[in-house]
Amino acid sequence: MSEHAATEHEQLLEEAKLAADQTYSPYSQFPVGAALLTENGRVIRGVNVENISYGLTNCAERSALFSAISQGFAPRSFKAIAVYAPKVPLISPCGACRQVLLELMAPDAVIICQGSDALATKVWTLKELLPGAFDSF
């Protein structure tokens, strides 16, 4: 990884950490923040928003992506997303988020994940996160 990419990843993680402070997670007490990087360098944050009926909860990754799309950003144009959860050593997107990431992120996008253990930070590609994915593109 280049020094520029490493710095970009660190900055995106910092945005995800700030987002994690804004979650609505009264039931699980499990805050997750995400920061999505657009092609033009804009960062769009997302947080998990819970509902007492857990199936109606929305994850931080999807919140960021849905927010970006609603703001007019084109699908498949996002360079990277950082996901942060302070209450586990390392976080990774759930299965539903992996499928949405696959459809809405750029094919070569990276997913940067971090929890309470910064040394465990992981950077994945979409193909690594969801091999053999259902993909119509």
UniProtKB/TrEMBL annotation:
NCBIfam families, A to Z: cyt_deam_tetra, PRK05578.1
Binding site residues for substrate: N48, V49, E50, N51, I52, S53, Y54
EC number(s) recorded for this UniProt protein: 3.5.4.5
Required cofactor names: Zn(2+)
UniProt protein name: Cytidine deaminase
GO molecular-function terms, A-Z: cytidine deaminase activity; identical protein binding; zinc ion binding
Family annotation (CDD domains): cytidine_deaminase
PANTHER family given in the database record: CYTIDINE DEAMINASE
Residues reported in the UniProt entry to bind Zn(2+): C59, C94, C97
Top-level taxon of the source organism: Bacteria
Domain CMP/dCMP-type deaminase residue range list: 7-137
One Pfam entry name: dCMP_cyt_deam_1
GO biological process, alphabetically ordered: nucleobase-containing small molecule metabolic process; pyrimidine-containing compound metabolic process
Reaction catalysis annotation: 2'-deoxycytidine + H2O + H(+) = 2'-deoxyuridine + NH4(+); cytidine + H2O + H(+) = uridine + NH4(+)
EC category name: hydrolase
A Gene Ontology cellular-component term: cytosol
